[in-house]
Structures are given as C-alpha cells and as structure tokens.
Design goal:
This protein is of the alpha/beta class and 272 residues long. The protein folds into two domains: 195 residues, 3-Layer(aba) Sandwich (Rossmann fold), CATH 3.40.50.150; 59 residues, Helicase, Ruva Protein, domain 3 (Orthogonal Bundle), CATH 1.10.8. 32% of the residues lie in helices and 20% in strands. α4 links the parallel β7 and β8. α7 packs across α10. The radius of gyration is 21 Å and the shape is elongated.
C-alpha cells in the first residue's frame, strides 16, 4: 500500500514537511475554509490577527477582504513564505514569533479592536487562550480551530465532567459559542482528534467581577488540582477554613459543583 506523503507543496514551488514540535496540521478542505471565512465575515474595516497562518489557507481570503491583517507564525520557513506572498501590501504584516511571547499591544492599544483567528496548534491551545485573555480588553472576538474536547471544556457548566479551570476562566472573560465541527480529512496530516470551530467574544461588561483576577485564577487552579477533594481540603493551602466557613458556600462540595460566582466570592474574601 502506497504511503501518503506528508509534504505540502507551496505556491512558490517549494515543499514543506509539517513539524510535530509546532503541532502543524494544515487545513486544505475548501468547503471547510469557506465555512470558517463565513463565520469570521471579514471586511476592510476589521483589524484581524491570524495565529499560525501556515501556508495561507485562511490568509488568502482574509487578505482579499481588505482587512488590516497581521500574522504571527513561529515557523521560519512559513513566515517567509507568507511574507513573500502578501508582504507588498500596507495592510499586511507577518511576525516570525511565538504567540505565547507575542505582545498584542504592539498591534493596538484601543479596546475591542482586534479580531483574533487561527487554526491553533492543539498541543498549546489552552496556554495560547490564557495568554490572549490577559489582553481581553483589546479583543473584539476570537474564532479558532481547536480540538473538540477543548471547546467542550470551555463551554461546560457546573457539575459537568469537563467543567474546570478552562471553563471558568473562559466564561469569566468571554461568551463561548461552539460553531461547527471539522472532519480530520480536512487536514494534512490528519489529526487523530475531532476538530471544531469556536467563537469567543469578550464580555463588554463582566457578568461577575473579581477584585483580583489573578487571585481568582489561583483559587480555581488550586481547587481543580485536587478536584476529587472537598473544597475545604482542596483550598486549605490558599484560604483558611475559618474564612471559608463564613462564606455562603457549602465547603463540603467538590470543585466542579461551584459556580463562577462562588469562586469570585472566595477569591474576594482572600484578596480583601
């Protein structure tokens, strides 16, 4: 049986082999591409940041929309390819950088001006989302290709088996909407997981506001690091039982049984 080649032929005639360390799975299905672009609905008034453009499956229609387009690509070969292909336009820039170290304020300091899109590397998708949420005020919305399991975790509610740190922090900052799934046959190489598209839209006004979001995140992280334990046991390293017992929360519950509002109450009691 003939083995399928994993090499991608680029428009400049060169070939590129997907690099596992960057989690590269390139989208090639035109129907899926059109569906994603319809979901983004780009226009010339938008300022779009594409993470991991790869060989330009989404970049090309985004560029043609007339939007201001900035691409962040860690792969040196692909950054050069994308830069050579689109770099003559004043509305286009490519940054050969790691998105986990990239400073969004270099692109804009105005609130809700950036639209972030991309086929995120599945091996770092959660850290990327947490990194972007640090600058949630700059972001109008985010539309990402992710592993379906990650989207299910982001959209999970109290009591669900997938409910956890990612659910709580994503929903603290954003509305989470699972748009549609994308089959593995749409990629080269084919991922071994189901993929899907999600829209994250930062709240214009937070539904519940913590005094110290970093404290909130620490409380949630600590609680879910020992999710099988009751709250009074899982949080004993960050808050005393005497403080917990004064709060309107059942300390015998497990972490997955507390709402975002409950965690904000605990966080605010700690931060004072």
């Amino acid at each position: 049986m003939k083995r399928e080649s994993s090499f991608i032929k680029l428009a400049n005639g060169l070939t590129h082999q997907p690099r596992k360390r960057f989690g590269q799975n390139f989208l090639h299905d035109q129907n899926a591409i059109e569906k994603i672009i319809d979901a983004i609905s780009p226009c010339k008034e938008h300022h779009i940041v594409e993470i991991g453009p790869g060989y330009g499956a989404l970049t090309n229609p985004l560029f043609k929309s007339g939007a201001k387009l900035d691409c962040v690509e860690i792969d040196q070969d692909l950054a050069k390819f994308i830069g050579d292909k689109f770099g003559n336009s004043k509305n286009f820039q490519v940054f050969q950088e790691d998105i986990l170290k990239f400073d969004l304020t270099l692109l804009s300091k105005k609130e809700q001006t950036l639209r972030i899109v991309g086929n995120l590397p599945y091996n770092i998708s959660t850290p990327v989302i947490f990194h972007l949420l640090k600058n949630h005020r700059l972001i109008a919305d985010m539309i990402f290709m992710l592993q379906l399991e990650v989207i299910q975790r982001m959209s999970s509610t109290v009591g669900d088996k997938n409910y956890g740190r990612l659910s709580l922090m994503a929903q603290y900052y954003c509305e989470v909407e699972h748009l549609f799934n994308v089959p593995s046959s749409s990629f080269t190489p084919k991922p071994k997981v189901v993929s899907a598209i999600v829209r994250l839209k930062p709240h214009q006004k937070l539904p519940v506001k913590a005094k110290d979001p970093s404290c909130l995140q620490n409380v949630i992280r600590t609680a879910f690091n020992q999710r099988r334990k009751t709250l009074k046991n899982s949080l004993k390293t960050v808050v005393s039982n005497s403080i917990l017992e004064r709060l309107p929360i059942d300390t015998n519950l497990r972490p997955e049984n507390l709402s975002l509002n409950d965690y904000v109450i605990i966080s605010d009691a700690i931060s004072g």
